[in-house]
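REQUEST ID: PR-0412
SUBMITTED BY: lab tech R.K.
PRIORITY: routine
TASK: structure prediction, single protein chain
INPUT:
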Amino acid sequence: MIQYGMPLLSGFGHRNALPGQMASILTRYFGAVEYEPAEILDFPHGLPGFPEQRSFLLIQSQDQAPLHHLQSLSTPELCFLVLPVSQLDAHYELAITTEDRQALGLFPDQPLQECDLSSFVILAKAKNGRVTANLLAPVVINAARGRGAQAVRTDARYSHQHPLEASSERPADECRKAREETRCW
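STATUS: complete
OUTPUT:
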């Protein structure tokens, strides 16, 4: 994960990249962003609705924490505002399919609690101005492999339009602020 061009956390991205080898992308919302190839997150199947989008960076701004931005590397104007699932539901139960496991580089029978996975919800703003979170299909990242997938649940336990205000005003306020500052989503 990067913080506007500066590494924030290690462990995301391709393991075969050479350390110190910097690349950059000119984004619509952040301008020029430098990153190491090891910070690239590979989504083998893309995202639903964006199957051709397979390479992303996870960007965080300290002043917008806990919000992050999932920035496409192939389409500079494509960026998703995301929030760690734990910010909305500390007891969220992740469910992933066999296909998701393969995309994330997990062994078929490997217990999820033994994996180094991070889950994020994509935030959206409805026409009525209400901010919602997609708990039905979180973005899941395997930090050890630098791989990601949007894990669409097959049940109806969670909503794809979970109201953000119902969980906490702070993330909702931060989301509005981030939306105004970056126009990212």
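NOTES: The longest strand covers residues 117-125.
REVIEWED BY: pending
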